[in-house]
Specification:
Blueprint: H1 13-43, H2 50-63, H3 66-86
Helix pairs in contact: 1-2, 1-3
Length: about 90
């Protein structure tokens, strides 16, 4: 029985390399999001830093958009690699 779905492409080692690079970028992005929100939270404890904390929350929120974009780019990249391997 084959457990692959319509998005699983078998192009071997190249697929693994591409996928791991995008996963690493996603993990790095998640780390930065966590850092911005943590620092922003501490900034909210000091009235003088509330505005800076707000900007860190805005930056972290904007970075949340990057995660699905990385996933889409990964799928596109793997799809192109698959098409090249069929040529």
């Amino acid at each position: 029985m084959d457990n692959k779905n319509e998005f699983d492409l078998d192009i071997g080692q190249r697929h693994i390399v591409i996928q791991r690079r995008y996963e690493a970028l996603g993990a790095l992005n998640d780390l930065f999001i966590a850092i911005w929100f943590l620092i922003g939270s501490f900034f909210f404890l000091n009235d003088a830093l509330v505005e800076s904390g707000t900007w860190l929350f805005i930056v972290g929120s904007a970075q949340l958009i990057i995660k699905p974009l990385l996933k889409l780019l990964s799928l596109i990249h793997v799809s192109k690699a698959f098409q090249e391997s069929e040529s």
